User: Fold this.
Amino acid sequence: MSEFLILDNVSYSYPGSEKSGVCQVNLALKQGEFLGVLGANGSGKSTLARLCCGLIAPTKGRVVVDGHTTEVEENLPYIHQQIGLVFQHPDNQFVASTVETEVAFGLENQALSSMEIRSGVDEALACFYLSGLCKVQPHLLSGGEKRLLSLAGIWNLKPKLLIVDEPLSMLDPGARKSIHMLLQELREAGQTIMWITHNMEEVMMADRVMVMAGGKMVWIGPPGELLKIPEQAKDWGVTLPLVFQLGMELGLTGFYPTTEDELVSEIWKLI
Ligand SMILES: Nc1ncnc2c1ncn2[C@@H]1O[C@H](COP(=O)(O)OP(=O)(O)O)[C@@H](O)[C@H]1O
Ligand SMILES: [Mg+2]
Assistant:
């Protein structure tokens, strides 16, 4: 696996902002990798996403996407093709008047025939459970449907790296579950994913998780390793998986349940 995204001693401060270094990161991401990005509100996660896709350029250091640095303006069209960012608030992303034209929008900007666009749209609608809603106006959709639509529009463009910024926030439990499963399927199909969240439960299947705190990357490693320093993780603003927290409350020392089944079998041993 080759390194697809490199953040080399990157530091970013918003222009005019008194805070310095709201995003300081060193990172190399390989193709096919699933990276979870954890951290409290305001820790710099969304800024990191914008840096990765060249929406903002680092104040110091370099961001390199598939060998192309984001500082060079001529590289940006290529970079925007390689990285799909699904924003934290889906409404900010919609530009069209119906679900199907929204899904078609990105494809229409590529040199494709109308038949190719039609089949691309149909495939994305089916894959994201939106076929029955194709004529509906995007702003009338439920929170979960809006999230599906924003994912479908980006996925359609077949980005090499998919960045999802808090994809499960503000969704009901049913929608959370189906979107979680869908992203898991994309991952199993080889999609490189950067998943931003404060809730570690969402990224337990990640290859690695990195933690942002106070604008700095403070930790990176496999999720199981982060669970070995739970108090530190909580101090950084990470919400630990519910079953893990329950295990801690029950005093299960030296054993870290990460699934309901594991927790239940440990409880049986206690009684
Ligand atoms: N457009 C902006 N101008 C100035 N400061 C900003 C802007 N966007 C975010 N910030 C600040 O940068 C820091 C990191 O924000 P952000 O990356 O959105 O964090 P997160 O996504 O982890 O909640 C915060 O202190 C926030 O207030
Ligand atoms: Mg954010």
Summary: The pocket of magnesium ion (ligand 2) is lined by residues 45-46, 88, 165 (CB under 6 Å). The mean pLDDT is 91. Residues 89 and 165 are 9 Å apart (CA to CA). The longest strand covers residues 3-12.
